[in-house]
Specification:
The structure is a homodimer. Chain A is of the alpha/beta class. Chain A is built from nine helices and nine strands. Chain A has two domains: about 70 residues, Winged helix-like DNA-binding domain superfamily/Winged helix DNA-binding domain (Arc Repressor Mutant, subunit A, Orthogonal Bundle), CATH 1.10.10.10; about 110 residues, NAD(P)-binding Rossmann-like Domain (Rossmann fold). Helix content of chain A is about 45%, strand content about 20%. At the A-B interface, helix 1, helix 5, strand 9 and helix 9 of A face helix 1, helix 5, strand 9 and helix 9 of B. The structure holds a DNA duplex.
DNA sequence: ACTAAAATGTATATATTAATATCAATAGTT
DNA sequence: AACTATTGATATTAATATATACATTTTAGT
């Protein structure tokens, strides 16, 4: 039944999801593939094709029911299954992510934030107290967390990653501009901001 | 001569670039496609294929010269041509980006940061004074800037985008979880953090 | 000098993905 | 009943990615 969904489709589906949230705020009940397509400057048949991967169907002449479609996307992409994570590095980026309200809507629950700067430890960010790095391992174990969001300065990235591997973290969402060397059983997703920017501007 | 480089290749090239920077820090002069491939868990022939898109050649048994390869990537991806941008929104994310030292290495120069919060205006971030939004248009014109980095809260995203369009901004790097409606002559790149995260975790 | 090993560069094959176009069927509207 | 907008499905075409293979080149070791 379930078809494999490619990265580009996942990305588009989350954009559709943003649009649907917006339509709900505006109390609009229906949406057509054409409306979505125009907002994203893509082809409407592609939107329909993506939506057909969900277990959802629209109606001729009407389009899709906004609320239903939104829920379909959430189910398919697994928003409903909560994923627990820790943030490592309470700098601006770590703080921004800790405060980024939307993550919870998408099933990403951030449980704690860590730093090794004594001036930061103990301060509160979005209801979470910044903890000493040395407590990380115990917290990860206690709360059964295997995702770490790495936002430390680049020069500490590898040593911090080594520490995370020791703490049995299995997935690292890496916001540092560093390619991490980790064992095969640990997965890294490089949030390569500069790469993304260049994709955007390469053809300017 | 110049072949079109796809998004995925651009992304990989920037990761190679991170690795090369790291090798330079460690004073290592040569690097092989196999070494790069192992760090990124990809195939070494793909690394060679990517590198062949640059005007660079390696040596059998030796590999590539780290410094030369790094410069080749920079030339090809246009790091050398400076792109000027403004940040809109001096919250944590805007501040994080303003402080993110690596952007300058990659040819992205951030010239100013704007907010409409009177408590923030006048404060200094990374040498830049936070300016009132109303000054944006004049600054963009004076400095000939057409890229805006949008980091305001989601609910203000569309109205701010309208303002940017009026200020003749042509490229918006959108960090808000909102699909913006803009005229056809304005390009938006959605930095869809949640989409990226889901690509990472979808198969967990 | 010879051989073995390591690495590139290129070619090929296969699979996957993307993007667009087309059109019958359907459901509302007039 | 005719008209129109819209879906859903299929077809087409192009682009992309990935993996495998191998001839060639260069160095290192003996």
């Amino acid at each position: 039944m379930d078809k494999k969904i490619s990265d580009k489709v996942i990305n588009r589906l989350t954009l559709y999801h943003c649009i649907l949230s917006d339509f709900i705020d505006k109390n609009i009940e229906h949406i057509s593939s054409k409306q979505i397509a125009e907002l994203l400057h893509i082809d409407d048949s592609q939107v329909r094709k993506d939506i057909n991967l969900l277990n959802n169907s629209g109606k001729s002449r009407i389009g899709y029911i906004v609320k239903e479609l939104k829920i379909s996307i959430e189910k398919t992409l697994g928003f409903k299954k909560t994923k627990k994570a820790l943030i490592i590095g309470a700098g601006n980026l770590g703080t921004a992510i800790a405060n980024y309200g939307n993550f919870t809507d998408y099933g990403l629950k951030i449980l704690a934030i860590f730093d090794n700067d004594k001036n930061k430890i103990g301060k509160i960010i979005n209801g979470m107290e910044i903890q000493n790095m040395y407590e990380l391992s115990a917290t990860a174990l206690k709360e059964d967390i295997d995702i770490a969001i790495l936002t430390v300065p680049g020069k500490y990235a590898q040593s911090t990653a080594d520490f995370l591997v020791n703490a049995h973290i299995k997935y690292i969402w890496n916001f540092t501009p560093t390619v991490l060397s980790v064992p095969n059983n640990v997965q890294v997703w490089n949030e390569n901001l500069m790469g993304n920017f260049l994709q955007f501007t390469y053809n300017i």
